[in-house]
Amino acid sequence: MNSKILILNGPNLNMLGVREPEIYGRGTLEDLRGLCERRAAELDLEVDFRQSNAEGELVDWIQGARGAFAGLIINAGALTHTSIALLDALLACELPVIEVHLSNIFQREPYRRHSYVSEAARGLICGLGAQGYAFALEAHRKLIDGAAS
Ligand code: CA2
After folding, report:
1. pTM for the complete prediction?
2. Which atom, in ligand 1's list, is nearest to the CA of 104?
3. Which of 42, 71, 101, 118 is the Cys-Cys partner for 140 at CB 3.0 to 4.6 Å?
Protein backbone atom coordinates (compact mmCIF):
# COMPACT_ATOMS: atom_id res chain seq x y z
CA MET A 1 0.00 0.00 0.00
CA ASN A 2 1.23 3.50 -0.89
CA SER A 3 2.46 5.23 2.27
CA LYS A 4 3.92 8.38 0.70
CA ILE A 5 2.81 11.73 2.09
CA LEU A 6 3.41 15.00 0.26
CA ILE A 7 4.05 17.95 2.59
CA LEU A 8 3.63 21.35 0.95
CA ASN A 9 4.65 24.68 2.43
CA GLY A 10 3.63 27.96 0.85
CA PRO A 11 4.99 31.50 0.60
CA ASN A 12 7.45 32.84 3.17
CA LEU A 13 7.73 29.61 5.12
CA ASN A 14 11.38 29.55 3.93
CA MET A 15 11.80 32.53 6.29
CA LEU A 16 11.05 30.47 9.40
CA GLY A 17 13.56 31.06 12.15
CA VAL A 18 14.79 34.24 10.46
CA ARG A 19 12.06 36.66 11.65
CA GLU A 20 8.95 36.75 13.86
CA PRO A 21 10.05 33.98 16.29
CA GLU A 22 7.35 35.14 18.74
CA ILE A 23 4.69 33.95 16.26
CA TYR A 24 6.34 31.08 14.38
CA GLY A 25 9.04 29.87 16.78
CA ARG A 26 12.83 29.73 16.37
CA GLY A 27 13.02 26.60 14.23
CA THR A 28 13.92 26.85 10.54
CA LEU A 29 12.22 25.17 7.58
CA GLU A 30 15.07 22.63 7.58
CA ASP A 31 14.36 21.86 11.26
CA LEU A 32 10.71 21.32 10.29
CA ARG A 33 11.76 19.01 7.44
CA GLY A 34 13.90 17.00 9.90
CA LEU A 35 11.04 16.70 12.40
CA CYS A 36 8.69 15.48 9.65
CA GLU A 37 11.21 12.97 8.28
CA ARG A 38 11.91 11.56 11.77
CA ARG A 39 8.23 11.24 12.72
CA ALA A 40 7.41 9.76 9.31
CA ALA A 41 10.11 7.10 9.74
CA GLU A 42 8.67 6.17 13.17
CA LEU A 43 5.22 5.86 11.58
CA ASP A 44 6.55 3.85 8.61
CA LEU A 45 5.60 6.63 6.20
CA GLU A 46 7.65 8.25 3.45
CA VAL A 47 7.56 12.02 3.11
CA ASP A 48 8.30 14.39 0.28
CA PHE A 49 8.73 17.83 1.91
CA ARG A 50 8.57 20.90 -0.35
CA GLN A 51 8.26 24.69 -0.12
CA SER A 52 7.44 27.25 -2.78
CA ASN A 53 6.71 30.96 -2.87
CA ALA A 54 4.84 30.50 -6.18
CA GLU A 55 1.13 29.73 -6.27
CA GLY A 56 1.38 28.08 -9.71
CA GLU A 57 4.14 25.75 -8.60
CA LEU A 58 2.06 24.63 -5.60
CA VAL A 59 -0.91 24.00 -7.96
CA ASP A 60 1.37 21.93 -10.25
CA TRP A 61 2.62 19.87 -7.29
CA ILE A 62 -0.93 19.22 -6.05
CA GLN A 63 -2.02 18.14 -9.55
CA GLY A 64 0.97 15.79 -9.75
CA ALA A 65 0.17 14.23 -6.37
CA ARG A 66 -3.00 12.52 -7.61
CA GLY A 67 -2.35 8.79 -7.69
CA ALA A 68 1.27 9.20 -6.59
CA PHE A 69 0.76 9.87 -2.87
CA ALA A 70 -1.48 8.46 -0.14
CA GLY A 71 -2.15 11.87 1.35
CA LEU A 72 -1.22 15.51 1.51
CA ILE A 73 -0.30 17.93 4.30
CA ILE A 74 -0.42 21.59 3.40
CA ASN A 75 0.52 24.81 5.11
CA ALA A 76 -0.33 27.21 2.29
CA GLY A 77 0.93 30.26 4.20
CA ALA A 78 -0.94 33.44 3.25
CA LEU A 79 -2.40 31.70 0.14
CA THR A 80 -4.64 29.89 2.65
CA HIS A 81 -6.71 33.04 2.90
CA THR A 82 -6.78 34.06 -0.77
CA SER A 83 -6.32 31.19 -3.22
CA ILE A 84 -9.30 29.64 -4.97
CA ALA A 85 -6.75 28.14 -7.40
CA LEU A 86 -5.22 26.11 -4.59
CA LEU A 87 -8.69 25.11 -3.35
CA ASP A 88 -9.68 23.88 -6.82
CA ALA A 89 -6.46 21.86 -7.14
CA LEU A 90 -6.94 20.33 -3.68
CA LEU A 91 -10.55 19.39 -4.46
CA ALA A 92 -9.46 17.75 -7.73
CA CYS A 93 -6.54 15.75 -6.31
CA GLU A 94 -8.78 13.14 -4.67
CA LEU A 95 -6.40 12.71 -1.72
CA PRO A 96 -7.02 13.18 1.99
CA VAL A 97 -5.73 16.67 2.82
CA ILE A 98 -4.72 17.83 6.27
CA GLU A 99 -4.27 21.57 6.66
CA VAL A 100 -1.64 22.74 9.13
CA HIS A 101 -0.72 26.16 10.49
CA LEU A 102 2.02 26.91 12.97
CA SER A 103 0.04 29.74 14.55
CA ASN A 104 -3.58 29.75 15.67
CA ILE A 105 -5.08 31.62 12.72
CA PHE A 106 -8.32 32.19 14.68
CA GLN A 107 -6.52 34.25 17.32
CA ARG A 108 -4.89 36.57 14.79
CA GLU A 109 -6.01 39.30 12.38
CA PRO A 110 -9.56 38.93 10.96
CA TYR A 111 -8.21 38.36 7.43
CA ARG A 112 -6.46 35.17 8.63
CA ARG A 113 -9.62 33.67 10.11
CA HIS A 114 -10.99 32.37 6.81
CA SER A 115 -9.30 29.51 4.96
CA TYR A 116 -10.12 28.40 1.40
CA VAL A 117 -7.94 25.34 1.99
CA SER A 118 -10.25 24.18 4.80
CA GLU A 119 -13.03 23.56 2.26
CA ALA A 120 -10.93 20.74 0.80
CA ALA A 121 -9.39 19.51 4.05
CA ARG A 122 -10.24 16.39 5.98
CA GLY A 123 -8.88 18.09 9.08
CA LEU A 124 -7.19 21.23 10.34
CA ILE A 125 -4.43 21.55 12.95
CA CYS A 126 -3.33 25.02 13.98
CA GLY A 127 -1.63 26.77 16.85
CA LEU A 128 0.61 23.87 17.90
CA GLY A 129 3.76 25.00 16.09
CA ALA A 130 5.93 22.46 14.29
CA GLN A 131 4.36 19.67 16.34
CA GLY A 132 1.19 20.15 14.27
CA TYR A 133 2.98 18.58 11.27
CA ALA A 134 3.81 15.51 13.38
CA PHE A 135 0.15 15.21 14.44
CA ALA A 136 -0.91 15.51 10.80
CA LEU A 137 1.43 12.61 9.91
CA GLU A 138 -0.15 10.54 12.70
CA ALA A 139 -3.59 11.34 11.29
CA HIS A 140 -2.48 10.17 7.83
CA ARG A 141 -1.10 6.94 9.34
CA LYS A 142 -4.54 6.28 10.85
CA LEU A 143 -6.34 7.15 7.61
CA ILE A 144 -4.11 4.74 5.64
CA ASP A 145 -4.61 1.99 8.24
CA GLY A 146 -8.37 2.59 8.23
CA ALA A 147 -8.47 2.41 4.42
CA ALA A 148 -6.52 -0.87 4.46
CA SER A 149 -8.69 -2.65 7.04
O1 CA2 B 1 0.59 29.98 10.99
C2 CA2 B 1 0.91 29.59 9.86
O3 CA2 B 1 1.48 28.53 9.67
C4 CA2 B 1 0.62 30.48 8.65
O5 CA2 B 1 0.23 29.64 7.57
C6 CA2 B 1 1.92 31.19 8.33
C7 CA2 B 1 1.81 32.21 7.21
C8 CA2 B 1 0.64 33.16 7.46
O9 CA2 B 1 0.47 34.03 6.36
C10 CA2 B 1 -0.66 32.40 7.71
O11 CA2 B 1 -1.70 33.34 7.97
C12 CA2 B 1 -0.52 31.47 8.90
C13 CA2 B 1 3.11 33.01 7.09
C14 CA2 B 1 4.27 32.14 6.64
C15 CA2 B 1 5.54 32.43 7.38
O16 CA2 B 1 5.90 33.77 7.29
C17 CA2 B 1 7.04 34.20 7.91
C18 CA2 B 1 7.42 35.49 7.62
C19 CA2 B 1 8.55 36.02 8.21
C20 CA2 B 1 9.30 35.24 9.07
C21 CA2 B 1 8.93 33.95 9.38
C22 CA2 B 1 7.80 33.43 8.77
Report:
1. 0.97
2. 1
3. 71
